[in-house]
Write a structure and sequence with these properties.
By secondary structure, the chain is an alpha/beta fold. It has two domains: about 160 residues, Phosphoglycerate kinase, N-terminal domain (Rossmann fold), CATH 3.40.50; about 200 residues, Rossmann fold, CATH 3.40.50. About 35% of the residues lie in helices and about 15% in strands. The strands form four sheets. Strands 5-6-4-1-7-8 form a six-stranded parallel beta sheet, sandwiched between helices. Strand 2 and strand 3 form a beta hairpin. Helix 12 runs parallel beside helix 13. It is elongated, with a radius of gyration of 23 Å. The mean pLDDT is about 95.
Amino acid sequence: MAWKTLDDMDLAGKTVLVRVDINVPVEGGRVTDATRIEKIVPTVKDILAKGGKPVLLAHFGRPKGAVVPEMSLRICLPALEAALGVPVKFAEDCVGAPAKTAVAALEPGEVLLLENTRFHAGEEKNDPAMAAALAALGDIYVNDAFSAAHRAHASTEGIARLRPACAGRLMEAELKALEAALGTPVRPVVAVVGGAKVSTKLDLLGNLVGKVDHLVIGGGMANTFLVAKGIEVGKSLAERDMAATANEILEKAAAAGCEIILPVDVVVAREFKAGAENETVSAEACPADAMILDAGPESVAHVAMVFGKAKTLIWNGPLGAFEIAPFDAATNAAALKAAELTKAGSLVSVAGGGDTVAALNKAGAAADFTYISTAGGAFLEWMEGKVLPGVAALDA
């Protein structure tokens, strides 16, 4: 990777355009979860410490190129000031006279937040004129929004080609973690891929079987693979029309020397609700009137054994219906085992994706993972082996 970091840039006296992701949840006129805002603090503070003047570029919601007042970034100001501990000014637009005036008035030690970049249609179209208008506001460009790096937008890709560019601290940490997990990993490497449907993760599975030593498949996806192997799964969620595709993935894995790990025992129930009556049976013995909702203890023991021998773990998706007890048992147990090995220093563990973060938090395992990415689409596309435009544009 040839991208630069803040350590490579002279920021003294410079106006620094920083692409951040502060697309945070809001309710009742205030930010309800400031996690994404807190994540950008190291980058902004480093810029201030180096004598730079940070100007934040961000999107909020999906206004689709129109000004939507309830999607104004102004709502983030109190949370930003609380997190940064410095005054944060606001510009009513991200380009044009309001932005230019606000940038010109910015004093050392202050931060400026520009209005929602997606209020302009040129943002998502990566319009060269929009990129040029943004670039005209500053001297240096810093991308600290890995979660938006899979989008070739004016504020993530176009602008990076018009100014000296580098990765912010959050982007730097993310890229280093991902490089350690799939770029040049310490082997053996195990990947956990869960979720409801094989069809949504075809590219991911196809890429991983050529790169990892063991691939654990869980959730509804595992049922589709069981069907492909001729195993009946009763009323379980399964994409029966994807059986041939699942078999192709199994064949590709065998040719690449990648072990595919499917459940050998499963937890079944007749209804999907908290505390539903359930039983554990062999994966080949799901009753016709039942559905598979979790992997069983034998399956978890095998996964734990594989984790114990591995050096690198990449995780995307739960092993069962983790939202409802008792069908969260397999996900919780596997997550806690990974956390234990990571804490002991024997495993590098990287996880990402919305359901994954929620599942690991629910299990109480997230804090001990090496790195947890809050980027959904970007993390998935990176796992699929795709080039992320926002990262590629940073190449020196």
